[in-house]
Amino acid sequence: MDIKAQQTKLANNFGKLLRDKFGKGPEAIHVTISNPYVLVYVSGFLSATEQVLLDQGQDITVKTTREYLMKSLDPEIRGQIKGITDIEIQHIYYDWNLSRQTGIFVAVSPAIPEDGEDSRRKYTGKEDVHQEIASISQQAEKAPDSVDSYMLSSRSLLVIREGILVPIEKQLITLGFDENLRVAKRQLEGELLINNTHFPSILDARVQDVFVDWDFILDNSVIAFILKPNN
């Protein structure tokens, strides 16, 4: 099965998984396979119950509920990716933009690319992107120990940060407040990222969506930009 067929099959299977778990599937799913990454972008994804909660200002309730539902889906998502692409997944990052009814999953295999020749690392504006990411991280918690990024396609940019947690955050995680911390960090960093005015000019593209998630154990983070190129 070629990559295009794999992407189509994964999109269909993920649509069914989400529909079964949430009671409503996304209107559209776009899958990008770029080993060791599998990026899944969903749109038109909001259940009737969630809409009622949002209308009542219960955004945090919706986000927290989705955190737990996605945890229950994690093994199935890994299994689908393994069965269709033969890629073993180490971790799945995910985030939502409730106002736009969009969301993203980024599945990462243990085979993280080593330094060296990788065309996905070579794109116009990379250094400026890294500087903006470091500045935003500094505002939210601390500058990361390292930043790397990959242009998976003309419409998707992945940024990986390592070493971003401050001591108080590590203590909250130790005390079992990791989910509360994740929701709070999503709100803070998400707003800083989406409101940044420099990325469109740096990337010569309209930023349609920005998503962010963390692996607290590994002390890293994935930021995904969904782009619409100007050319």
From TrEMBL:
Q: Where is the Na+-translocating membrane potential-generating system MpsC domain?
A: 7-108, 133-228
The record ties this protein, via Pfam families, to: MpsC (PF10057)
- Organism superkingdom: Bacteria
This chain's protein is named DUF2294 family protein
